[in-house]
Design goal:
Layout (H helix, E strand, L loop, with lengths): L67 E3 L5 E3 L3 E2 L8 H10 L4 E3 L7 H13 L9 E6 L9 H12 L4 E6 L7 E3 L2 E2 L14 H13 L3 E7 L3 H10 L6 E5 L7 H9 L3 E5 L21 H10 L3 H11 L3 E2 L6 H6 L10 H8 L23
Parallel strand pairs: 3-4, 4-5, 5-6, 6-9, 9-10, 10-11, 11-12
Antiparallel strand pairs: 1-2, 7-8
Helix pairs in contact: 1-2, 2-3, 7-8
Pfam families: Aldo_ket_red
GO molecular function, one term: oxidoreductase activity
Keywords: NADP, Oxidoreductase
Length: 376
Amino acid sequence: MTLPIFLLHNGSSALSSSAAPEKASRHLVYIKANSTSCLTVRSEKLRVKLLTHGQNRIEEMAAAEIPSVKLMDGTSIPVLGLGTWKSKPGEVKAAVEAAISAGYRHIDCSPVYENEAEVGDAIAAKIKDGTVTREKLYIVSKLWQTYHEPDDVEAGLKVTLKDLQVEYLDLYLMHFPIGFKQQSGHTSARDANNQIITTDRDYVDTWKAMEKLVEKKLVRSIGVSNFNEKQIDRILENCTIKPVTNQVECHPYFNQKSLSDHCANKGIILTAYSPFASPDRSWASPDEPKLLEDPALVAVAKKYNKTVANILLRYQIERGHITIPKSVSPDRITQNKHIFDFKMEPSDISHIEKLNRPDGRVVLMSFCKDHKYYPF
């Protein structure tokens, strides 16, 4: 009979490991019936040789694993995740299933994306079929702005937990520093001109309520999204639990260098959303430059025999960022993983940095630009 082996996304095994980490470059694992063995893996490629009882039946498996980085609270997060913003219901379930099957473990969600229930169905399906366990997934969601009142924070989380069909989140982010008046649930109240009504609730108060979610073990880590440098500092001056990440728009046309450096100096890792500059956004102008077609990036991609998307994602990784590209195409989801088998030369990184534009931001939330907590 064949002895089953469980390969874990963090580079360990259900079997005990005794090999020295520094020798973990290319190891074969031999597993015989009625015996145990050690497993040492390399994050880029895993080769496994299985020997069955009475025969030398060999199965080789190559798996490109997504590396993880340690956050300031000691937890680890995969540096590449699947974004679900703008993934339509009816499409997102298959996309999440394809991503998990392809080796993704980091799934980024939000209730305002209006697809968390379908994401939850996908997660449940992949756990049920044995592809992954909940413990090996890294699930992220966000507190929407209608739940900024401290007494509402836990209720907002519990809606997400129910939809995602999980008992806890690995990371919970405050989606935006400005609160919205709640009409019901995630629906914002609007004025006579159909404009969203904001509140003056201090995001520090909201943060302190989020800290209680960690204490209750409903979430493992907490962070922020769309916060500027001063807002980050204000959280740090008033918090008990520090934010582990700031998730913001980031791509070569809007490289966030100052914010990235500021967060890094505070031990906060930047997570880049819209790493392709959201080419499918409905509000894009026809005459806007298209990041994925930029000649400079096309040239770099040709140099490394990669896609422009690969270059854009690798650019974030080389800067020490986490990134969460969105796709519902299984082929693109898999292709986006092909960024850990090469490194770009410093001169190429510098060249990409020069693509930054003063008008490069594409997510503005300009309807609340006059609010005292508007971050942009």
